[in-house]
Amino acid sequence: MQKVDISIIIPNYNEYENISRGVLTEVISFLKKQKFTWEVLISDDGSTDNSLSLIASYTKKDERVRLLINAHAGKPYALRSAVNAARGKYLLLTDMDQSTPIQELLKLIAHTPKYQIVIGSRGARRADSTVIRQLASIIFLMVRRFILLPEIKDTQCGFKLVKTDLAKKIFSRMRIFGRANNAVGWKVTAYDVEMLHLGKIMGAQIKEVRVVWKNEDTSSGKSRNFVKESLEMLFEILRVRVNDMLGKYNV
To answer: Does this model's pTM top 0.70?
Structure first.
């Protein structure tokens, strides 16, 4: 199979509204103007809306756009499926809502000669978030940095560029996939923390880069509970810390 420079990985779970407003058109239009070679891997997580039919229209127009069909298991599982299928030297993890627009990729690429992992950072203050959500984000950040990865400000931004061979090794060792899965709705978890922690253990150089971020998510089929999700992520981070203390990440 032909290799490319960058694999753009986009998870999909009931993203009909986001796709309808043209996010994939914007992504592909941007990529067509670049000098690097690319592919777009859209990894579906058992969607129940009409998003798959919209995605299919893009795959028919351009063979560089591929759709991966997965059983519903949660975002990390959809990402792992795409990571395993990626043919690029690097891969970009990005979200369908494009709250961080694809153009920000160029900021991350600029750091690839020195770093194997380059992650987007949204900053602690987000202008379009409520005061309660901003406060909760700050508290989450403080607790997470106390437990793991104190040198990284924003582990949860869904915009990350990773060297593909390293990403495949990391995802093969992530403990989150060893637990029983009972995904209900759009299950996110704190997989980002485990991924970055494993990258750090493996000796990867990690660079955090400030990117543009504005909440553009118009999807209605994810049924997310911010408070519940935040608590679940904190428990996930504690599990990563315990796994680390027990030596389960020794490489």
So the answer is: yes
